[in-house]
Model the fold of this input.
Amino acid sequence: MNIKDIARLANVGVSTVSRVLNNHPDVKEETRQNILKIMKENNYIPNNSARILKSSNQKTIGVLVKGIFNPFFAEMLEVIQSAIGTTGYDMIVQHYDYNTTNEIDKLVAFIKEKRLQGVICLGGNFDAKLEDYLKDLPVTIVLASVDTKITTPNNILSVIGIDNEKAGYIATKYLIDTNHKNIAIIIGDSSDKKIGVLRQKGYEKALKEANLTNSYIIEGDFKYDIAYKKTKQLLLDFPEITAIFAISDIMAIGACKAILDSGRTIPKDVSVMGFDGMDIGQYYNPPITTIKQPMIEMASLSVDILLDVLHNKSSNKQITLETKLIKRDSAL
Done:
């Protein structure tokens, strides 16, 4: 969507749209309001143009974070901020809600409004369509902690993450190998079309290989309280469950409290597997068995690759990092 498209939809000339954008007085109020309405309906954000982005003296890197409260990304942000702080660039952080559906629009708006030279995205349901929106913007982009299978025809961005399906499989297989047959999974929410779906696929693959036909799936919305409430109800509805795999440590902790408040013990009655390997998990009682993501490496690489591409030292990259099963007391 560009200024010509807005002019066509409003049935006016490009110069009229330009005058509205620049707040000139010589436009009829009715025409002005109609143009503004069309811009809003089409999520049009004035591009301050690629020329301005190129010529700007600002040295600013943005970090776009999925989730208003996401402790895993908060830990990554600390590493990223420390790394960027030594480069001479300023850093701007913007969060958006898990339930946001127009994530590409959020990214494009962030780039244009802040006139960014580079962006690191932490999480997000991005796909190959991203190229259509970014091809005219001279901005270096790194997607971190996303689906590493994302590809763009012209290799316009870098991707760093893990094999989420494999990690979900390893987590579930560990529970199966410790003699659990009724295993539940706590996913994020239905709007998560990438990482959550892949971890669930790994869970389902492990069950199928073990000829286990019962699957139990609830949504914890990546929050302690929601995971707690949903787990309490799950245990009431399906008392045969002996293990729970939560696709984030936050939801695993919520599930643990629900188990204990339901009069059961961990891991004797119900084992719990988390995901992420956050520091908080090892200090919970009992310490959470989890799939540890290489958070520090992922965050550091995001900055290194961004700067290398930004300074024409390398091309964009797609990197898949390894996870590690951390065995603790919550799953036996």
In short: Residues 49-55 have pLDDT under 50 and may be disordered. The first helix runs from residue 3 to 10. The first strand starts at residue 60 and ends at 66.
